[in-house]
Design goal:
The complex is a heterodimer of chains A (290) and B (372). With 290 residues, chain A is an alpha/beta fold. Chain A has seven helices and 14 strands. Chain B has a domain of 124 residues: Thiolase/Chalcone synthase (Peroxisomal Thiolase, Chain A, domain 1, 3-Layer(aba) Sandwich). In chain B, the strands form two sheets. Chain B has a ten-stranded mixed beta sheet with strand order 3-2-4-7-1-8-12-11-9-10. Classes of the chains: A alpha/beta (290), B alpha/beta (372).
Chain lengths: 290, 372
């Protein structure tokens, strides 16, 4: 059974026949693997963003005295955010795109082009260090990751499904707040689940969200472009490339289904043009928030 | 559309609590009114399509096609369709298919529902049939609960307040005052919406469309001309359960059906003068306006707060004011649009009707030619 985060919650005042006749708190829960489930929430006034852990509970006894058990979700840690999610502490610059679109290159060039303004937020990961990592990761054990998650110390976390292992990635709230306290803009180079997590924790308005798309006029052209790039950079095995392309395909859907999570969508066909556009957006936002 | 489909007449019962009228009695009343309005005889009808959701569970009556057909002397071919709260519009869509394929020349479309004779728990469980029986229902979720989840997320994402949301039902009630067929013809202040009993937080009693009895009927024909023509009929679907959707604050089926309907009618959304949309719960009205791009995401409330748009929204009173006998609503919306277009002498009206939490959506565009 997976842990998760509440993404919507209601109290049903008149539960259906057969359930105890008392208000019933029901939530839509985003599980750590990225899928969603509807279940009863055990806890007093749970809120969107709260961490929940599953447990079995006897939910009702029917007329024939048969006991029905179901999974319920218990609030483990309240959401790690201020009382009012609409308080604006600062903003986060987020760059989201499918694997192979060139996020790392863009973020490297952007960090130096805006070195006076942005700081990269380290990514917490449970995976092993490997060649090609560029100091963007903080490596922790799986146990430590889950402890931080349940303590509410992570602003966003996700599990990237892979054939071989259970990899988790996340951002610590404290890292982001520290960058704000230094008067700088946190930069995250991220994927769809983490972006949604950040929007949940800090509010959508706190994110200057840019999507990076591969060139190509059709979905097929975009995917073949990604495949080509992943192969030529030579960092991944064929197996891992297959995983990445599968994930990229759902990432592309995400851009059309969740348009509201993006302020700007950019096509990465010319790195200089992309950097210039991004720089423009950041400088304009700096002006506006001042 | 592959043929010209004209709306030649319509009729309905008043929506409300009809303890003295059975499901067949409601259907008969609406059918007679439509035939009289069309100025035809019953024998001119080649086929019947009836939309109904819970007749089987609540009235113990299936076979509504045969039952309705038996009301006419010549018993034309008849069938019943079901798509939860979209049953009515899906019946209209099915009738269009019969006409476009030349299976029929003149079709009677009926939408009917009898809901008030059953206990609340029986109705709630019958309506929950519109959700996902494996993913939604086992946790003890009800339909107001599903929209409670949607409203909680919407308020979280966009900062909509309880006071703002109350403007929606209040406005629909205001419109219903002028509609003699509406269940509720009285004003409801935004404050009384905000202070009504909680049903599924953050939704309250007056955010929810009521349980109603009622029937509506329209007559569509490709051989009998009329100034009113169906310019588009589009049907779209989505995953049944909220747990299987990428977002719950926007409905893909509405976006698809409406976008394709505008393409089919070859119009821009700005040309629509009257819109009847599916406000089963107040929050749905806002999401629908955004999905049809009359407002940006999160900004639907602006249309209720400022009322600056030229297009009318739920001038009939909508589901909240008129009542929502589920299978009848989609048919009754087309009848209301026809009345509104005739009165205003405008050209286009759109009816948006969905089932469940937007798992089925059907959009019709009605065109009014001032000189037939």
């Amino acid at each position: 059974m997976e842990r998760g985060t509440i993404s919507a919650v209601t109290t049903v005042r008149h539960p259906p026949a057969g359930f105890p006749d008392e208000p019933r708190i029901i939530g839509l829960i985003t599980l750590d693997g990225g899928s969603s489930v509807i279940g009863r929430i055990a806890g007093i006034s749970p809120r969107i963003g709260d961490r929940v852990v599953p447990r079995m509970s006897m939910e009702r006894v029917n007329e024939q005295k048969l006991r029905a058990y179901d999974v319920v979700y218990e609030v483990a840690a309240p959401a790690a955010l201020q009382e009012d999610p609409f308080v604006f502490e600062g903003y986060i610059l987020a760059l989201t795109g499918p694997s192979g679109v060139g996020k790392s290159t863009v973020s490297k060039v952007l960090s130096s082009a805006l070195s006076g303004i942005v700081t990269r937020v380290p990514i917490l990961t449970t995976r092993e260090p490997k060649d090609g990592d560029d100091g963007e990761y903080l490596y922790v054990t799986r146990e430590e990751f889950i402890r931080l998650e349940d303590a509410g110390a992570l602003a966003a976390s996700t599990r990237i499904p892979s054939v071989s292992e259970d990899r988790r990635y996340g951002y610590r709230t404290e890292d982001i707040c520290k960058i704000w306290n230094e008067g700088r803009v946190p930069l995250v180079v991220t994927e769809m689940h983490l972006l949604q997590g950040l929007a949940r924790s800090f509010g959508r308005r706190s994110i200057l969200s840019c999507g990076l798309l591969p060139p190509g006029t059709s979905r097929r052209a975009m995917l073949s472009q990604l495949l080509h790039r992943l192969r030529t950079r030579g960092r991944d095995s064929e197996q891992s490339i297959a995983d990445r392309v599968r994930n990229a395909s759902s990432d592309l859907d995400f851009f059309s289904h969740r348009k509201e999570l993006f302020d700007h969508l950019l096509v990465n066909d010319d790195i200089d043009a992309v950097i210039a556009t991004l720089k423009g957006h950041v400088l304009r936002t700096q002006e506006d928030t001042r | 559309m592959n043929a010209d489909v004209f709306l030649v007449g319509s009729g309905q019962t008043r929506f409300g609590e009809w303890w003295d009228k059975s499901l067949p009695a409601l259907i008969e009343e609406a059918v007679s009114a439509a035939i009289t309005d069309a100025g035809i005889t019953a024998l001119d009808i080649d086929a019947i399509v009836i939309g109904n959701m819970i007749g089987q569970q609540i009235s113990g009556q299936g076979q509504l096609g045969a039952m309705t057909s038996a009301l006419l002397p010549h018993r034309p071919p008849a069938l019943r369709v079901e798509a939860a709260c979209a049953s009515g519009s899906v019946a209209v869509h099915t009738a269009c298919a019969l006409l476009e394929s030349k299976r029929a020349e003149t079709v009677l479309v009926v939408g009917a529902e009898k809901m008030t004779d059953a206990e609340n728990t029986a109705i709630a469980s019958a309506l929950m049939g519109a959700g996902d029986s494996e993913r939604d229902a086992p946790a003890g979720l009800t339909f107001p609960g599903i929209f409670g989840l949607i409203a909680s997320r919407y308020m979280h994402d966009y900062g909509l307040t309880r006071e703002e949301l109350s403007l929606v039902s209040s406005r629909h009630h205001e419109h219903a005052k002028a509609n003699p067929y509406a269940q509720f013809r009285s004003s409801v202040s935004p404050e009384s919406v905000s202070s009504s009993a909680p049903v599924a937080d953050p939704l309250r009693l007056l955010d929810c469309s009521p349980i109603s009895d009622g029937a509506a009927a329209i007559i569509l024909s490709r051989t009998r001309k009329s100034p009113l023509r169906l310019a588009a009929s589009q049907l779209a679907t989505d995953a049944l359960s909220l747990a299987e959707r990428p977002t719950i604050t926007s409905f893909a089926a509405t976006r698809d059906a409406f976008c394709r309907a505008c393409e089919e009618a070859e119009i821009d959304r700005k040309e629509i003068a009257h819109l009847e949309l599916h406000d089963c719960f107040s929050i749905a009205a806002l999401i629908n306006l955004e999905d049809m791009q009359f407002a940006d995401p999160g900004q639907g409330i602006g249309i209720y707060r400022d009322g600056l748009q030229e297009m009318s929204v739920n001038l009939s009173g909508g589901l909240k004011g008129c009542g929502h006998p589920v299978g009848a609503t989609g048919v009754k919306q087309i009848r209301d649009l026809a009345k509104q277009l005739k009165a205003s002498k405008q050209r286009f009206g759109a009816a948006h009707n969905f089932g469940g939490a937007g798992a089925t959506c059907c959009v019709h565009i009605l065109e009014h030619a001032c000189e037939p």
